[in-house]
Design a protein that fits this description.
4-stranded antiparallel β-sheet, 5 helices, alpha+beta
Length: 166
């Protein structure tokens, strides 16, 4: 395969999509733990509200209010993850140049360059519109279909599926 270069300038929406895909695929229950907690508090508050029908239950009101607060916090946290990470990680604000070849990935950022062999990659997550390639357990490289021209996404998808363990 002929090596090709990709220059990608990420936006907050791209990070949002990538991190949602990562967390909801590899950590679905841990990601939703706060949601489960909020719903349990609200349900318990409703049950206590019926048990203490006279409306004097401080515990029921506390659980309803706090459960609702936790629910809204969970929604805000999951929907704003991309924006918050985009502000905290300046390396995504500058263009990143990837060179994709049969041997691996070469990455150039404003901080420097690094090369990864395909055999050294831990795993990859391949979806219809996004590919996440994991060189280690704590990070990944993001390739979105909208950033690639023509058949580049199909080439990259085939190469990743062939060379990187799932």
């Amino acid at each position: 395969m002929q090596p090709f270069k990709l220059s990608i300038n990420y936006q907050a929406e791209d990070l949002q999509k990538a991190f949602e895909t990562h967390f909801f695929t590899f950590h679905p229950h841990r990601t939703r733990l706060m949601l489960y907690l909020a719903l349990a508090m609200i349900a318990l508050g409703i049950v206590l509200e019926f048990v203490y029908a006279n409306g004097d239950s401080f515990t029921a009101h506390f659980l309803l209010i706090y459960g609702t607060f936790v629910l809204f916090y969970y929604i805000w946290k999951t929907k704003s993850m991309g924006k918050r990470l985009y502000k905290k990680l300046p390396e995504y604000q500058a263009p990143i140049v990837y060179e994709v070849s049969d041997q691996g990935l070469s990455i150039e950022t404003h901080k420097g360059a690094v090369e990864h062999d395909w055999k050294d990659m831990n795993r990859a997550l391949v979806k219809d519109d996004i590919i996440l390639v994991y060189p280690n357990d704590s990070g990944f490289h993001i390739f979105m279909k909208k950033h690639l021209k023509g058949e580049e996404f199909a080439k990259l998808k085939g190469l990743v599926e062939k060379k990187v363990p799932k």
